[in-house]
């Protein structure tokens, strides 16, 4: 039977509006409310527990794994405005569907991912959606998300409801610290790898997507001195300025600092038997190079970057290519 709720209109001669239910388990339910809440046609998103044996389980019982429940969200939506297919697409983009043991920082049965279908049509759409994801080749590992029949759904305790609104600072810290934010940016926000392979040169793809390193003194920008900015070859995000570029003698383009500190991420790199700090672009998560504490600038840093990870925008073309806000960069920094 189709699972709907009905909400009467204010006048008795108007038709009753019907809403459908969708239930998704995507790990910690704190992180699953806001994305659906913003979707036009969604009336309500409730955090709760489903798929287990006990009636009205508590949060502690669920996370301890004694009841068999999943943390989940139940969405009341108007199918005339927001289709179930649209909700499925949004669901996939919030999770790591290849993880069979939980989600990100949260491990255990209660944090596994699942689609709980409320009728045969939802089951068919969910299976079709999962098959399309598998065939897309977006992930190299098997898709572990389960497709299960809906079972009783128990709303979680009040303090769990709308957690992103009640505790916004902690919510943002948790969402980022758990690893969910970075995963979404890396796997969902940037172009699919097949598109990147078609758009990038083999060397650009090897450097940015496979953490490669180009030969020293045999790359495009190691001795490039023109005024302008260097942007991520994948996303176009501004990364470095020629004002901060210097000759490090290493054969790779080197900079004393990025244009903005928050345009890059730094990660510990233990590859090749060495301990280094890797530099990646924040938006596209492209591998750029490494940063070392032996630079000439005020912070003593040397950002050693692969030319193949960069695209150069000459100062004269900044306005034309949509980077006009950086035209003052050269004047202001040359006077420092």
How would you portray this structure in words?
There is one protein chain. This protein has 336 residues and is α+β, with helices and mostly antiparallel strands. The protein folds into 2 domains: 4-189, 2-Layer Sandwich (Peptide Methionine Sulfoxide Reductase, Chain A); 199-334, Metal Binding Protein, Guanine Nucleotide Exchange Factor, Chain A (Beta Complex). The chain is built from 10 helices and 18 strands. Helix 4 links the parallel strand 7 and strand 8 (146-149). The longest helix is centred in the middle third of the chain and has 17 residues, at 120-136. Residues 1-15 and 332-336 have low confidence and may be disordered.
Poorly predicted tracts of residues: 1-15, 332-336
From the coordinates shown, what is the CATH architecture of the largest domain? Answer: 2-Layer Sandwich
Radius of gyration: 25 Å
Distance between the termini: 71 Å
Secondary structure tally: strands? 18
Q: Class of the largest domain in CATH?
A: Alpha Beta
Average pLDDT works out at 88
* Number of discrete domains: 2
CATH topology of the largest domain: the name is Peptide Methionine Sulfoxide Reductase, Chain A
What general form does the structure show? elongated
Element-by-element helix/strand order? EEHEHEHEEEHEEHHHHHEEEEEEEEEH
- Backbone structural class: alpha+beta
Name the helicity range.
10-25%
**CATH homologous superfamily heading of the largest domain:** Peptide methionine sulphoxide reductase MsrA
Largest sheet: 7 strands, mixed
């Amino acid at each position: 039977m189709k699972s709907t709720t009905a909400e009467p209109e204010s006048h008795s001669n108007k038709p009753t509006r019907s809403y459908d239910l969708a239930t998704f388990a995507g790990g910690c339910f704190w992180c699953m409310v806001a994305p659906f809440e913003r979707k036009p046609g969604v009336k309500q998103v409730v955090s709760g527990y489903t798929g287990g044996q006990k009636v009205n389980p508590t949060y502690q019982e669920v996370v301890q794994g004694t009841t068999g429940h999943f943390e989940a969200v139940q969405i009341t939506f108007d199918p005339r405005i927001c289709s179930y297919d649209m909700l499925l697409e949004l669901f996939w983009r919030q999770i790591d569907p290849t993880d069979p043991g939980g989600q990100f920082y949260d491990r255990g049965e209660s944090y596994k991912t699942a689609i709980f279908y409320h009728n045969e049509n939802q089951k068919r759409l969910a299976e079709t959606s999962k098959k399309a994801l598998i065939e897309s080749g977006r992930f190299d590992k098997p898709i572990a998300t389960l497709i299960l029949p809906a079972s009783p759904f128990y709303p979680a305790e009040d303090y769990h409801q709308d957690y992103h609104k009640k505790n916004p600072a902690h919510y943002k810290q948790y969402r980022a610290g758990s690893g969910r934010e970075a995963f979404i940016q890396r796997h969902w926000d940037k172009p699919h790898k097949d598109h990147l392979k078609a758009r990038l040169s083999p060397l650009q793809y090897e450097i940015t997507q496979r953490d490669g390193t180009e030969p020293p003194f045999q790359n495009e920008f190691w001795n490039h001195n023109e005024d302008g900015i260097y942007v991520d070859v994948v996303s176009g995000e501004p990364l470095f300025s020629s004002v901060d570029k210097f000759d490090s003698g290493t054969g790779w383009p080197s900079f004393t600092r990025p244009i903005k500190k928050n345009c890059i991420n730094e990660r510990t790199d233990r590859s090749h038997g060495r301990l280094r700090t890797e530099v990646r672009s924040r938006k596209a998560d492209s591998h750029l190079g490494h940063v070392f504490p032996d630079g000439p600038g005020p912070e003593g840093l040397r950002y050693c970057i692969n030319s193949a990870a960069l695209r150069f925008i000459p100062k004269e073309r900044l306005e034309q290519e949509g980077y006009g806000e950086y035209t003052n960069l050269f004047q202001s920094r040359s006077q420092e």
